[in-house]
């Protein structure tokens, strides 16, 4: 599984530099040559990184500014490519996390992408759901506890299979142990949805800092195991 990026530019030379640099860290790149089709893609699909040719693309800066208003990519790592018209400060003010200056050299591209990779991984982990079956106990009340099994886990919650009824909106106490970790985690959650067939989604609430750290680290390890080539490429760049 690779990271996904979108390059909005009609500059073949820019693509010629960025494509091998992105491939080196296992980031797939989709290319769009125009602002309007690029904006349509940003509204429909989530990307781990978006690269916008601000000065050599019609309304490139406006496209960058609009990126932060989209539902799918409001927090995506954004790169602004400038060519003397837009200043670095203006690019950052418009929503860029990183700025690339034309003419872009392979070394500069590698260094910038190297610096950005951790941010891309962090953003991917934020919405990443890892399929896993973990037994857990769900306490609805002091004397009402149900056994369940997770079907996937994310930073913000989990999907579960349960024998019994979970009322939507109910606050619950969760107790489970992550595979490979001996510490039992106890945290509060809320039933976000339940389909009436034994499947439900639970949103985490009031997660202790130590438990949050364990969940984030566990998910990061699984995410990295799925993308060893990317991590190896990142290590080599460092």
Report what the structure shows.
- With 238 residues, this protein is an alpha/beta fold.
- It folds into 2 domains: 3-127, Response regulator (Rossmann fold, 3-Layer(aba) Sandwich), CATH 3.40.50; 130-226, Thrombin, subunit H.
- The protein is built from 7 helices and 12 strands.
- It has helices at 12-24, 35-44, 60-67, 88-93, 106-127, 209-226, 228-237; strands spanning 3-8, 27-32, 49-53, 77-82, 98-101, 130-131, 135-141, 144-153, 157-162, 171-177, 184-194, 199-205.
- The strands form 2 sheets. A 6-stranded antiparallel beta barrel has the order 7-8-9-12-11-10.
- Strand 1 (3-8), helix 1 and strand 2 (27-32) form a beta-alpha-beta unit.
- Helix 1 crosses helix 5 (106-127).
- The model is unreliable at 228-238 (pLDDT under 50).
How would you summarize this macromolecular structure in one to three sentences?
By secondary structure, the chain is of the alpha/beta class. The protein contains seven helices and twelve strands. α1 packs across α5 (106-127) and α2 (35-44) packs parallel to α3 (60-67).
CATH architecture name of the largest domain: 3-Layer(aba) Sandwich
User: Can you write the helix and strand succession as a string?
Assistant: EHEHEHEHEHEEEEEEEHH
**CATH topology of the largest domain, anyone?**
Rossmann fold
The secondary-structure class comes to: alpha/beta
Number of helical elements: 7
- The domain tally reads 2
**Percentage of residues in strands:** 25-35%
What overall form do the CA principal axes indicate? Answer: elongated
Radius of gyration: 21 Å
Mean pLDDT: 90
User: What's the arrangement of strands in the largest beta sheet?
Assistant: 7-8-9-12-11-10
């Amino acid at each position: 599984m690779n990271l996904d990026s979108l390059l909005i530019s009609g500059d073949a030379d820019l693509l010629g530099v960025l494509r091998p640099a992105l491939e080196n860290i296992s980031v797939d790149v989709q290319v769009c040559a125009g602002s309007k089709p690029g904006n349509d893609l940003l509204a429909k699909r989530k990307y781990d990184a978006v690269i916008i040719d601000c000065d050599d693309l019609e309304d490139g800066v406006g496209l960058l500014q609009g990126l932060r208003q989209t539902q799918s990519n409001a927090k995506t790592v954004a790169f602004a490519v400038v060519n003397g018209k837009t200043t670095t400060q203006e690019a950052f003010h418009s929503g860029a996390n990183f700025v690339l200056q034309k003419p872009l050299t392979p070394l500069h591209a590698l260094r910038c992408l190297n610096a950005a990779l951790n941010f891309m991984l962090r953003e991917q982990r934020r919405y990443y759901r890892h399929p896993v079956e973990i037994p857990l106990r769900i306490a609805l009340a002091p004397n009402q506890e149900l056994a369940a099994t997770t079907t996937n886990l994310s930073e913000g919650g989990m999907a579960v299979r349960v024998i019994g009824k979970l009322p939507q909106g109910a606050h619950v106490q969760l107790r489970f142990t992550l595979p490979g970790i001996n510490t039992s985690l106890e945290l509060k959650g809320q039933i976000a949805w339940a389909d009436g067939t034994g499947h439900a989604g639970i949103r985490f609430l009031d997660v202790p800092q130590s438990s949050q750290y364990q969940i984030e680290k566990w998910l990061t390890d699984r995410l990295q195991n799925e993308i060893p080539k990317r991590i190896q490429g990142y290590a080599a760049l460092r």
